[in-house]
Amino acid sequence: MTINLTDPVFHDETKAREFLEKQRWPHGPVCPYCNETKNAVRLGGEAAAKGQVLCRPCRKKFTVTVGTVMERSHIPLTKWLMAFRLMASSKKGMSAHQLHRMMGITYKTAWFLNMRVREAMGLGPDPAKSAGPLGGAGKIVESDETFVGGKAKNAKKGKPTPKKTPVVALIERGGEMRAKVVADVTAKTVRKVLVTQVSRKSHLMTDDSLVYYWLGREFAAHDSVNHSKDEYVRGKAHCNTAESYFALLKRGIMGSFHSVSEQHLQRYADEFAFRWNHRQLDDTARANEIIKATKGKRLTYRPTNEA
Ligand SMILES: [Zn+2]
Fold it and tell me: How far is it, in rounded angstroms, from Cα 246 to Cα 274?
């Protein structure tokens, strides 16, 4: 990962604001309350320094951070930009502790940044609604599950082994992917994830798990490989794309986070899925995609100091 640390956007608050505005508003300010573009005017004097814009039609004032994960934060924009850039670049994921050390900010601030950048990288509580279904006619979608965490050696002495949490990955070949943390891998649970997030016109690819026996018939086509008979690839039938995402996620969790509580696993899975979906871009372009994705995202729970 190479970052130009001397770039003024990481040091100069005005430059950082101008950069953010260029990313979020390429054609000039957009009112986050009524979507007005023509009559949103920049205010002068002291308000100008703070980037305030007045929307004439709805009479509301706003800045570039309103309606994003950055709203109402007292963290300088230079720090936000650095966090976007670091988290866009890191293949193994970036923990709050790493941000704390690399950016010279308090752990508490780093934790806040870490959670909110991840929130931007996610698709929200209803991905089918925010991003539409995966797959479609003539498209192949892989579905596979893995279990994350719960390594006995990570358990504290005298405490029971933490349980492993299942994650389902859905990957459209040549398209996007999503990962969903689930309570279990029963046919009922997996079906709910698939039918809400994958178009039934898709060609489904899975392993030979019984979970997919009936579920597969709800899709246009279904092929499976017999993992239980050591068969991993048969022509187009394989789950190797899902496997490679799982490998990245697991390496990241072991290398950067050591362990992840079940409560936060979905955010980590989203962070890795975001980088996967934008892997063709360079690090700067990927960071800019995070900036665009900050729109309309909010953390709905009260943060704790948990990493
Ligand atoms: Zn307005």
Answer: 13
